[in-house]
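User: For my dataset I need records formatted as: sequence, then structure tokens, nothing else. Please produce one.
Assistant:
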Amino acid sequence: MDEKKKDEFYELCQKKLESVQLTIVGRDDVSFTSKVYFMDDDKMEFTMKRIKGEFPNVRSKDKLDVKGFLSDGKQLLFYVKAKQIRISDDAREASIIETEWPDNFAKKQMRQDVRIRAALKCYFAEHLNENRKIDPEEQSVGVLQDISRGGCFVLSRDKIVYKGRNIFLYLYIQDSEGVIETILPGKVVILKSIGKDKEAKCQGMAISFTNISKNTEDRLMNWIFEQQRLQLAERREKKEV
């Protein structure tokens, strides 16, 4: 990486990078959310937390696929090689993965798909029951604020699912073809406090969808395009008034 790109990469990590998803290349089952802990001209360091009481099985020389989530809605994509792992026995100190610098990086617009505003009541939970449904005793209530093929943004005053956690979102939508009733699996990638007071009135969760069936995706996109046409027509009418 030349000096110009190095400077750009460093600035992105320091000013816009909110969180990262680390996956070991060749071992897709080892994937977890992290943050950049430290970086200089020679190395990068990422935090590593326990998952269900165990640290992710990262070893020296592992190649890590890094997906970074930037504050401007883009992704920062790159690969790094792990140099050493420093496990902390003190809960107050982070365990660290030290890596080399990436050879290159790429930026990707996360919101390439059509994204529409919405105001739909929804339900969510971190787990499904044995019938692959959301248990009414475990569910929380939210409001779907916007949605695209790849994800959505949900506001809630109920329980918050933390960054990096899996989430299941129940939606009931009426469209021109009938009813879309579905549970969308996803992962929370950004968590924001909403409100100007010291005590936030609610929390916002940016959710990236995972493993949606083709049939559900097609129905959802038809509804999104239908809503987009209605919203564009509404905006044109307001301009004409």
